[in-house]
Amino acid sequence: MKIFTDAPEGMTVVQNAFIDRFMPHANGEFVKVYLYLLRCADSGQELSLASIADVFDHTEKDVRRALAYWEKQQLLKLKLSSDGTISSATFLTPPAEERAVSVSSAAAGRDQDSGAAASSENATDKPSLSIKAQDMPSRARVKALSGQKEIRELFFIAEQYLQRPLASAEQDDLIYYYDTLQFSPDLIEYLLEYCISKGSPSRHYMRKVALGWAEAGITTVTQAKQDTNLYNKNYYAVLNTFGIKGRAPAIPEQEMMARWFGEFGFSMDLVLEACKRTIRQTHQPRFEYADSILKKWHKSGVSSMADVERLDAQRRQEQEKPTQKQSASAPNRFNNFSQRKYDYSQLEKKLLNQ
């Protein structure tokens, strides 16, 4: 992927309009990707989704989501190749006026307590529910919704879970889940409960979970529990195979396992086989080693245990070939001299006549 910008060489230029109008409402991880692309545009190097993801310890889906967001904001122009991959990204001058964030009719139906001003402001708007375009609500929209009884109760519940007052950015996130993602207060409360129970109450982690639910079409607490129980079952099966007891998986471990089951689409049998091979080779529960095995399998198109056995057979054949060649060409040191010939019948007669 090539990056194009009209900035002078040797410096990374960030326009004031980006800082003033776009950065305050954007996800912090998206801002990182945007600034990194600006920096790389000056170097002239080619990038890939994988290389950008490695820099920030993200997934390629996270990077693609960030690029799509900035394209939605009219700050980037992406060009796709014939196979659907991003071949180039061009920085654009920020539009003269900030676009209003759309408001869903379903959210408007929940605005009965917000007053006539908020109703008239959003009466003609239609929903924009694209998960790739994570538009934060406008300040006017946040102010209008913050006065609702339902939202105030949601803030109070969140503060009880976090055991501290909410920052303004955290309030914006909750309104984003409620208004843009159209999560019910019950679902948002379960989101808080789930993330805190995992030991990960950070905004970044909570947002990733919320976006994952939205992309999966989860709209109820029951659906969310089914989804999280499935992942918990998978995660703890991996921990048990590694012999890890008495703790939940750490965030880096969760991200690796999410890639194995999600991005790679591996079945439980394949993941557990990689874990068993890790223990046999390293005698330790090393997630990074198992991750390297599964990456190789994914690259080789493995989708079943039969594919794994096929790769194992190919590797054995490759290992045997040099050994056979070497044994055929190497001389036998015991035969590397002239052999003596004996007439055993004559020797036997001599011995008997003595």
Q: Biggest β-sheet: count, sense, barrel?
A: 3 strands, mixed
Number of helical runs?
Answer: 17
Oligomer: single chain
Overall spatial form: elongated
Secondary-structure element order, N to C: EHHHHEEHHHHHHHHHHHHH
Short descriptors:
elongated, single chain, about 350 residues, about 5% strand, 3 domains, Arc Repressor Mutant, subunit A, mainly alpha, about 60% helix
Describe this protein's structure.
- The radius of gyration is 31 Å and the shape is elongated.
- The protein has helices spanning 16-22, 28-43, 49-56, 60-72, 105-109, 116-121, 139-146, 149-162, 168-179, 185-197, 203-215, 221-242, 251-263, 268-282, 287-299, 305-329, 344-353; strands spanning 2-4, 76-80, 86-91.
- Mean pLDDT is 76; it is low at 98-134.
- A three-stranded mixed sheet has the order 1-3-2, with helices on one face.
- The chain is 60% helix and 4% strand.
- It has 354 residues and is mostly helical.
- Helix 13 packs parallel to helix 15.
- It folds into three domains: 2-91, Arc Repressor Mutant, subunit A, CATH 1.10.10; 100-218, no CATH class; 220-326, no CATH class.
- The termini are far apart.
